[in-house]
Amino acid sequence: MAKHLTEERGIRLPDDLAGVLRRKIAFFYSPLVEMLLSLHVLHDPERHGVLLPWMVRFREKISPELMRELRYFGDHCDRWINVAEGVLGFPGVQDLGVNALVDWLGSLDEASFVARLLGDRVSRQEVFAVLSGEATLDDLMERLGVASSEDEAAVVEIIGDVNLARTRLGQLLTSYWDRYFHDEFYWIELLLIRSIKESSIELEAGDPWEFLPRVCRGALAWDGERRLVPRAGRSATPRELGGLDRIQLFPSVFVYPETLLVNQPRRIIVSYPVSPGVYLRRDTLNPPENLSLLLKVLADDTRLRILKLMAEKRRFTQELASELDLAEPTVSRHLKLLREAELITSEKEGNYIYYSLRLERVAELQTKLLDFFRA
Predict the structure, then answer these.
(1) DSSP assignment letter at 208
(2) pLDDT tens for residues 273-329?
(3) What's the Cα-to-Cα distance from 233 to each of 101, 169, 221, 267, rounded to whole Å?
(4) Cα–Cα distance between 68 and 66 in angstroms, integer?
(5) Where is the domain boundary, 273, 306, 338?
(6) 238: which of 129, 196, 227, 268 is 20 to 30 A away, CA to CA?
(7) Sign of the CA dihedral 104, 109, 110, 112?
(8) CATH code at 294?
(9) What's the pLDDT at 374?
(10) Peptide bond preceding 257 in cis form (omega within 30 of 0)
């Protein structure tokens, strides 16, 4: 499913600093990282006001048991941001799936796993000292700054059975992807691909020196000597452009309106927010069945003429056939479709069946279309 898209399109760029910068910038996206960031939104929705409609809708799908696990681990993984940032720096992250992440978690020794799980607020050595009995759990609690009895109980539980915590986390990630996020990502992917295409065109056509700080929302900036300065609360040590192999830009719906930055020796990875806009998801992209039926029935000149005549007064089959110069069986077939769409009603009087237009159904059409387009 994942694709790796870059700005390289076989165009020979000028051999100047702007051209060098363009060649170093690459775009990619990762279903795995986007999944982890969606967990962050579910865990900490108040930081992502524009995504509240998505959060409310999506939470309704998730079982209470899975939500409890999501909150449990999110509380200790720095609201899932710690995990997302760590995975974002993996080589080939665009091709990694949730099973690869679970396998990686399983390959960590116990001390490394717990340190990662606790948001790297403590080192592997500190955790190892507790697991080996060289330090007390109280020492670890103090280092972590545990403030509540719930947090304390969770840390005791994790330290007490590391393998169980690892199994629970793996089951949570796998279940969330398989049961919920896999289908959701199909529609998110459309937004990410569109953003990469638009940003690539903008980069090629414009000034790359201006493009980079703008798209990264201030997470990267230039100093007076055209050196790159990572910002956003991190070390502001300037980076020489020649010392970087890649500046990788990662669009994300769920990082909105913030950014993530991974600063590595030969590359910098920065997420940038993609406005959800009209969020393309399965339950709103597909029109309601009754709306589709209504539009199909109305998309016929003969049926529109029949309804126009009924708008004047109620009509019976023979009368309509005469007015429209059609055979009665033809008119009957049209009337059947109009009844199925609930656009007309019928009433028998004597030997005739009179048909009347349900004008309110036609009036509802505008509202139904607007609701569909705005959802």
Answers:
(1) H
(2) 887 754 545 455 677 778 888 999 999 999 999 999 999 999 999 999 999 999 999
(3) 27, 29, 13, 18
(4) 5
(5) 273
(6) 196
(7) negative
(8) 1.10.10.10
(9) 53
(10) yes
What is the full DSSP assignment across 258-310?
---EEE-SSEEEEEEE----S---HHHHSPPHHHHHHHHHHS-HHHHHHHHHH
Q: Do 321 and 356 sit in the same domain of this protein?
A: yes
232, 209 contact by CB (below 8 A): no
pLDDT tens-digit readout, 217-263: 888 889 888 889 887 555 678 889 889 999 999 999 888 767 888 88
Structural domain count, the chain: 2
251 lies in the same domain as 305: no
| In a shared domain, residues 183 and 132 | yes
Mean per-residue pLDDT, 154-178: 93
State the residue range of the domain holding 317: 287-374
Q: Are 231 and 218 in contact (CB under 8 A)?
A: yes
Vertex 83: Cα angle to 82 and 85 (nearest 5): 65
**Closest alpha carbon to 30 in 82, 105, 85, 95:** 95
Same domain, 260 and 298: no
The dihedral region occupied by 190, where left means phi > 0, alpha psi between -120 and 50, and beta the remainder, is alpha
Kindly state whether residue 282 falls inside one of the protein's structural domains: no
Per-residue pLDDT, 9: 37
pLDDT number for residue 35: 94
Identify the bridge partners of residue 345 per DSSP, sorted by sequence position.
356
Is the residue at 6 inside a domain? no
